[in-house]
Amino acid sequence: xxxxxxxxxxxxxxxxxxxxxxxxxxxxxxxxxxxxxxxxxxxxxxxxxxxxxxxxxxxxxxxxxxxxxxxxxxxxxxxxxxxxxxxxxxxxxxxxxxxxxxxxxxxxxxxxxxxxxxxxxxxxxxxxxxxxxxxxxxxxxxxxxxxxxxxxxxxxxxxxxxxxxxxxxxxxxxxxxxxxxxxxxxxxxxxxxxxxxxxxxxxxxxxxxxxxxxxxxxxxxxxxxxxxxxxxxxxxxxxxxxxxxxxxxxxxxxxxxxxxxxxxxxxxxxxxxxxxxxxxxxxxxxxxxxxxxxxxxxxxxxxxxxx
Length: 307
What we know:
Elements: H1 7-12, H2 28-34, E1 40-43, H3 50-58, E2 63-66, H4 76-82, E3 85-87, H5 94-110, H6 112-120, E4 136-140, H7 144-155, E5 159-163, H8 170-176, E6 179-180, H9 183-189, E7 192-195, H10 209-214, E8 219-223, H11 232-240, E9 244-249, E10 269-271, H12 280-306
Parallel strand pairs: 1-2, 2-3, 4-5, 4-7, 5-6, 7-8, 8-9, 9-10
Helix pairs in contact: 2-3, 3-4, 5-7
Domain D-isomer specific 2-hydroxyacid dehydrogenase NAD-binding: 103-275
Domain D-isomer specific 2-hydroxyacid dehydrogenase catalytic: 7-296
Keywords: NAD, Oxidoreductase
């Protein structure tokens, strides 16, 4: 969160702000050590487990405002039982994440990153790329981000299959020529598979050995959602045997990605830093929305306590 650009608003609301020094997210033990001191938290992807929330509730914690969309790191049931107000900021990053997904797909198709690196080494690398028009892309998760990805892929002339656990709006399917299909069919027919869904207990390791076995040989995999949607051990095996021809991963099961990860060995894998939503405009927009939710729920909590 760009704190300097929010200071006036935070001061006007009478909030004292503490910002822990972190690289990607705090650990459960780190949260347990400090959580009881705060009335409210604007959270990233930090693990707000039942243990963390219970310790927080025994102290001052009353409000948890999620910065962003995904709430998979928050034990929502525990928060509800403890009377902790929770919120998130849905429908805020569709275009930003879709732009990154599109960028990854174009990089996989034309290998621009490899040519750039070669030229910087004094080489003149010529790579025969892959045309995208007419290829089939499968998008898993047709929420705000998935819809924005579908629109971009349709514009490229790709055939697009979509899968979601909820019914997909028929009007959107008609607008984009999206075909709503079962997951197995999407896996079997797609040349490129893009993950844009929430992480839930039901779809943990959605792409596992069984899923990879169903895919076309040489399929591309793009993940701009959550790292744990992919069984990384299974992905490494699929990369080694050529089942997966290339991958672009903005997220991982462990972040930052450890230097011991075997994914680092594959030239055909593009690695990101969980950064697909990070544009100046989007950050400022979500900052304000998260603060709105924090202030609203702190006031609700205060009113509830007084009554």
